[in-house]
Design a protein that fits this description.
By secondary structure, the chain is mostly helical. The chain has five helices and no strands. The chain is elongated, with a radius of gyration of 19 Å.
Length: 109
């Protein structure tokens, strides 16, 4: 049923009244899967953001992701997830340190 009235729910997320926005978000949150993968897939692939095209719609996407986090549990990667080598972190840190100390204005590199 949610998919049939999705555009109206999305417009409800734009309400100026925080209580109304919260009620619409709760309905929106309850209608989507509760795993990180399901949420990301929905936000990136499935959701039509056109109803919120004139506002910063990424806030709603981020709220959907944050709503499934458990406050006192660490975020961990699955054992089969891709991981970045520690050497890349070292290289990134070196480049970042160099860029911060360079004489060029920020953003010109």
């Amino acid at each position: 049923m949610f998919l049939k009235v999705e555009r109206q729910y999305m417009l409800g997320l734009r309400s100026r009244d925080p209580d109304v926005r919260h009620k619409f978000f709760t309905l929106y949150h309850d209608s989507i899967g509760k795993t990180l993968f399901t949420r990301l897939q929905y936000i990136i692939q499935t959701q039509e953001w056109e109803a919120l095209s004139d506002v910063f719609w990424l806030k709603q996407g981020l709220d959907l992701l944050l709503a499934i986090l458990v406050e006192h549990e660490p975020i961990t990667l699955a054992s089969n997830s891709a991981q970045v080598c520690p050497q890349l972190f070292w290289l990134f840190h070196r480049i970042w340190s160099w860029a911060e100390g360079c004489p060029w204005p920020s953003g010109t590199i």
